Amino acid sequence: MKICYVDETGTDGRSPLIVMVGVIADSQRLNRTRTEFAAVLETLDQVPPTALRELKSSDLYKGNGPWRKIGGKERHDVIEGLCKWVCDRKHHLALAAIDLDAASKNSLAGLDVWISAALHIALQVQRRYQGVKGNKGHTFLVFDEHKRLADPLAELLFDPPAWTDAYYRRGPRQEALDQIVDSAFYARSHHVGLVQVADLFSFIFRRYAELMDFGMSEAFEGELAKISSWVDMLSPRLLDRSHRWPRRPQGEAQEWYGAVAPASLLNL
């Protein structure tokens, strides 16, 4: 059984895109992952406990809130350490990214952009794991609390529209989204370490696209190089591009997700 911990960034109106990342863990290795994550945080003795209760990627990156007295190098070392840790654990990442301006001109079947991104995560996981034997119990999707859209997403996963079938080449006798447990689960991010990690990685990919595709200026000299180094670390753990944005899209959903994805992330 797999558990995909999901969080997003870019919904506060300050960014031109929304980015969502799912950190996919094998349930059989989950206890070890939790233990190691706690151990990683315990090594950060220079960081106040309030900062570790919930990482809040934007504060960590910019040195705001409980991180304001921690130097830039130390904060960036924390980020790099978490990137390396997830890669060493060999967790896979599902990545969704939507240009908000493009989506406002052409939505996916009238869906909210957050739900569109969440559905993209589910479709990638479905496509990747439907051919894997022995994925007993299939995959749970665990999101950071998003109460307003919890019920609509659960309904969508329970009874997905027919236009999603082509995304994962649903067979004639195959149940829709049969690799996804047909509900969405929610947790407070400070209770679940991998949701916090998903938030951090979403921020990294979002900032990369902002600098590469949307003409935003560096916040400090060398920012693009720093962000690019983290993207280079994480990219090998992404689900294959054929599951994210196929080069030859088939069906309405694949075409739409490819059309609204920022070029820099599309090409990873």
Number of domains: 1
Number of extended strands: 5
Secondary-structure class: alpha/beta
Major beta sheet summary: 5 strands, mixed
Q: Helix amount, in percent?
A: 40-55%
Which strand order does the major sheet show?
3-2-1-4-5
CATH class category label: Alpha Beta
Structural Rg: 18 Å
Structural account:
The structure is a single chain. The protein has 268 residues and is of the alpha/beta class. The protein has one domain (2-266): Nucleotidyltransferase, domain 5 (2-Layer Sandwich), CATH 3.30.420.10. The protein has twelve helices and five strands. It has helices at 30-42, 49-53, 57-62, 72-88, 100-105, 113-129, 147-158, 193-213, 223-234, 241-244, 251-260, 263-266; strands spanning 2-9, 17-26, 92-99, 139-144, 185-187. Strands 3-2-1-4-5 form a five-stranded mixed β-sheet, sandwiched between helices. Helix 6 packs across helix 7 (147-158) and helix 8 packs across helix 9 (223-234). The protein starts with a strand and ends with a helix.
Using brief descriptors, characterize the structure shown.
268 residues; alpha/beta; five-stranded mixed beta sheet; single chain; Nucleotidyltransferase, domain 5
